[in-house]
Design a protein that fits this description.
This protein has helices spanning 3-8, 27-33, 54-77, 90-110, 120-132, 167-187, 194-210, 221-232, 251-256, 274-288; strands at residues 46-50, 113-118, 144-151, 156-161. The protein is of the alpha+beta class. β3 and β4 form a beta hairpin. It is globular, with a radius of gyration of 20 Å.
Length: 289
C-alpha cells in the first residue's frame, strides 16, 4: 500500500470507505431523486440540500468515485504505441491526459467535492423541493456546472455554480485547491510523521507541475499542453514528427509507472522537458487515485 495514499485517508469524505456492494445512484441521480429538504433560500446559482440519511450522500459519491476511477484505469491501462507507427505519440499524450482528468474527478469525490453538470431535470427537482418548503423566492436554479460539497456534520450538500470556466479548467482549479488543502492540513498537524513530510513533498511536486512551473497558476497546465497537442499538433507528436527527440520512446514506460504506486513517481521540474513532465504528472495522478 502506498504511504502517500495512506497519509491522505484522513481527508476522505467521512464514511465513504464504509460503502460496499453495488451502488445505483450518482450525485446527479441523487439530486434528481428529491430525497432531501431545503431549509434556506435557493437562488439562481446556489442551493443547500439537507438529507435525513447521510448514507444517501455516501452512496452517491462512492458511485461517482467508482465510475470516474474505472474510466481512468481503463484509459491509462489501454495506452500503447503502434508498432507500425512508433513515432506517433499523439494519442498516448491525449489519452494520458484524459486518464488523469478522470482520476482527478474521482479524487475530488473521495474528498467530498463533486463537479457536476446540472441539467434541466436536476435543477427542476431542486426548484420543486425548494418551492415546497417555501424557499424559492426567485425563478430558480440555473443550469450549468456546479461544485457540490458534502458536509457530514450537517448531512448537507451545498451546490454553488462555477463561474465562466470550462469544465476542464474548473476541474483543475478545484484539484489544485484540494492538493493545497491537504498539504496545509498535513503541515498544520502537530508532530507530523516522516510519512506526512514525504507526502507534503510529493504533493508540492504535483502542485508545481500542475502550475506549469509558474506558467499556469490556476493549475490547468495539463489542459494547456493537451490542447496544444490535440488542436495545434505541437511537440512533434503527430506526423511529420518534427522536432522529435530520442526520449519519446521512453514515454510509454513512464505511462506504465502508474501501476507501481505514486510514491515512486517523480516529476522533474526542469524546463524544456514538457512531454516528460506531462506524462509523469498524469501517471502520478492516476496512481494516486
Amino acid at each position: 500500500m502506498s504511504a502517500l495514499s495512506d497519509t491522505l485517508r484522513p481527508f476522505w469524505l467521512s464514511g465513504i470507505n464504509t460503502v460496499s456492494g453495488r451502488t445505483t445512484r450518482s450525485v446527479l441521480g441523487l439530486i434528481g431523486s428529491q430525497r432531501y429538504q431545503v431549509y434556506s433560500p435557493t437562488n439562481s446559482s446556489f442551493a443547500e440540500l439537507q438529507f435525513g440519511d447521510w448514507t444517501d450522500i455516501l452512496d452517491a459519491f462512492a458511485d461517482d468515485c467508482s465510475r470516474w476511477s474505472t474510466a481512468a484505469f481503463e484509459t491509462m491501462g489501454s495506452i500503447d504505441v503502434s508498432a507500425r507507427l512508433p513515432k506517433s505519440i499523439g494519442w498516448l499524450m491525449v489519452r494520458s491526459y484524459y486518464a488523469a482528468f478522470y482520476a482527478a474527478h474521482a479524487i475530488l469525490r473521495m474528498m467530498g467535492r463533486s463537479l457536476t453538470q446540472l441539467d434541466l431535470p436536476a435543477t427542476g427537482a431542486i426548484d420543486a423541493v425548494s418551492a415546497a418548503y417555501g424557499m424559492l423566492p426567485g425563478r430558480g436554479l440555473h443550469r450549468g456546472l456546479y461544485l457540490c460539497e458534502a458536509a457530514a456534520q450537517t448531512k448537507s450538500l451545498k451546490l454553488k455554480k462555477v463561474a465562466s470556466e470550462g469544465s476542464h479548467e474548473a476541474l483543475w482549479v478545484q484539484f489544485m485547491a484540494i492538493v493545497k488543502m491537504i498539504s496545509a492540513g498535513l503541515l498544520s498537524t502537530p508532530g507530523g510523521s516522516l510519512g506526512a513530510q514525504q507526502a507534503v513533498a510529493k504533493l508540492t511536486e504535483l502542485e508545481v507541475a500542475l502550475g506549469g512551473l509558474g506558467q499556469a497558476p490556476r493549475g490547468n497546465w495539463l489542459s494547456i499542453i493537451r490542447n496544444q497537442i490535440n488542436y495545434h499538433h505541437k511537440f512533434g507528436a503527430w506526423f511529420p514528427y518534427s522536432g522529435r527527440q530520442a526520449y519519446y520512446s521512453g514515454l510509454l514506460a513512464t505511462v506504465g509507472a502508474w501501476r507501481d504506486g505514486p510514491d515512486g513517481i517523480s516529476i522533474w521540474p526542469q524546463t524544456g522537458r514538457d512531454l516528460q513532465r506531462f506524462v509523469e504528472t498524469c501517471a502520478l495522478i492516476v496512481s494516486l487515485c
